[in-house]
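Sharing a chain and its predicted structure for anyone who wants a worked example. Both blocks are below, sequence first, tokens second.
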Amino acid sequence: MSQPTAVIFDVGRVLFEWDLRHLFAKLITDDDALEQFVTTVVTPEWHLQADQGRALDEMIAERIAQFPQHAQLIHAYAERFTETIPGPVAGMPELVARLDAAEVPLYAITNFGHEFWQMFRPAQPVFDRFADIVVSGTEQLAKPDRRIFRLALDRFALAPHQAFFIDDNEDNVAAARAMGITSHHFTDAASLETDLGRFGLL
């Protein structure tokens, strides 16, 4: 069986930093109140509904009905989501550029709300280097559901053994590996660079 020939990236916390706190720390000055808010109101678990393809308007209306005292902050989540993404992960733009220069085909599978991707993607020219990107909110399938990996492989015209997948989430990595995809649990650019070299991709 041949070595991987194409690289599939995750986006959040691999290519770009992401944390709800990056936005809400600007709006909630008390540290305890901030933690309370991002663990009980606008939480990563609730946000996953957007990644799974639920309409943002529905999510916002439902959450405001549940937490009317936080209506302004919940609206900020919808309107200022890109502020939860402060910039690229250190070393990753350079690594992507090197792979592209080496003519390694680049793809992505990202858990990302459809509306939020429409806000974020136009401002990020790094994705111009990518042949295709599967967005969970658009497809209404989110990692680690194996169906999103199958959809991506079909769209990218790759067999599992041809792909090298990178994700910071261990469940997503395990799901990809179970399908026969060589996978890297991301922690930092230096470790990824070493693994890409080990597989002859850099």
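Comments welcome. The chain has a mean pLDDT of 97.
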